[in-house]
Amino acid sequence: MTDNTTGTHGAVLQDSAPAPDGPLVELRGAGKSYGNIRALHGVDLKVHAGRVTCVLGDNGAGKSTLIKIISGLHQHTEGEFLVDAQPVRFTTPREALDRGIATVYQDLATVPLMPVWRNFFLGSELTKGPWPLRRLDIARMKETADQELRHMGIVLDDLEQPIGTLSGGQRQCVAIARAVHFGARVLILDEPTAALGVKQSGVVLKYIAAARDRGLGVIFITHNPHHAYMVGDHFSVLRLGTLELSAERSGIGLEELTNHMAGGAELAALKHELAQVRGVDVEELPEEGDLSAPVATSPEGTP
Ligand SMILES: Nc1ncnc2c1ncn2[C@@H]1O[C@H](COP(=O)(O)OP(=O)(O)OP(=O)(O)O)[C@@H](O)[C@H]1O
Ligand SMILES: [Mg+2]
Predict the structure, then answer these.
(1) Are residues 139 and 89 both part of a single domain?
(2) Same domain membership, residue 274 and residue 170
(3) Binding site membership of 67 for ligand 1 (Cβ less than 6 Å)
(4) Which of 65, 188, 219, 238 best tests ligand 1's pocket when mutated (most atoms within 8 Å of CB)?
(5) Is beta strand 101-104 parallel, antiparallel or unpaired with respect to 186-190?
(6) In terms of domains, do 139 and 276 share one?
(7) What is the pLDDT of residues 114-167, one digit of tens each?
(8) Distance between CA 262 and CA 251 in Å, rounded?
């Protein structure tokens, strides 16, 4: 921050302007019911610029419901949803996008047979020439897509290749660079690494960090505590629609986060069940009530 109050930021700061370091997006006691199914209840969440907020939870925990509220697909039925400290209720994803909230879904909305650069500009094509002779500005689109991808550190051999020929991880990266280019302030990623192998997941995590370093507030939805811990600044764990844990990175280690995800008590119960099955080594699973203890990494007696 500078102390130059007459600078470009000074001009737009008014009485109602949010605190510059306040959250971009905030949920306060937010919840969502589908008819009489309560999918989400009493959730608090803050998303800050230049930080990665991880939302973890098992299947059916409410992760998608939470991001659908923030991305404008569904409306919350309880609590508050604020953007730049103003209460909002989006009725379409377009409204969220207009406030700088972009969502990258796992089944990316790309046209597989179209070139990478064309997909980059899909729905927002650049044109040139006066009406009615306006035509696509192909050269500028290719150049811009190339620059933006390079800026994020993504190097593709040929932007003419159909996007369908890229790996799942590369497609995720193109989608991240696209959101950054079109002015996203908040980037929501719904399980971007779920279908990827170790190496490709690493690549996607790298671009999540790159988006964060460019000042975006990132919401990273994942099942995987290891992936979350590699890039996360804050961890929110959902369980059966409620917030089971909300912790800053400094307040939690990977083992504890993993235990929260796995549900220590359920793991312990599973251990007893598995103990009945011959040949399954259950020694390394934690005991009930052993939530904060690190998971043993080597069997007793070995160095
Ligand atoms: N449109 C809907 N109508 C009724 N119930 C729904 C709807 N969408 C979600 N639910 C219910 O809300 C709960 C939370 O679902 P949600 O999809 O948010 O979970 P999730 O954490 O994203 O799970 P997953 O990891 O499987 O994607 C589930 O019990 C689900 O059945
Ligand atoms: Mg989901």
Answers:
(1) yes
(2) no
(3) no
(4) 65
(5) parallel
(6) no
(7) 889 998 898 788 989 888 888 999 999 999 999 888 887 778 888 898 988 887
(8) 18
Domain encompassing residue 138: 21-262
- pLDDT score of 267: 66
Look up the CATH number of the domain holding residue 71. 3.40.50.300
Give the number of domains in the chain.
2
Q: Are residues 163 and 287 in the same domain?
A: no
- What are the φ and ψ backbone dihedral angles of 239, each rounded to 5 degrees? -145, 125
Quote the distance between the C-alpha of residue 298 and its chain's center. 33
Co-location of 246 and 256 in the same domain = yes
Instruction: Calculate how far, in angstroms, residue 67's C-alpha sits from the geometric centre of ligand 1.
Output: 11
What kind and span of H or E run contains 88? none
What letters, b where the CB count within 10 A reaches 16 and e where it falls short, cover 203-229? bbbbbbebbbeeebbbbbbbbbbebbb
Helix (H, G, I), strand (E, B) or coil at 266: helix
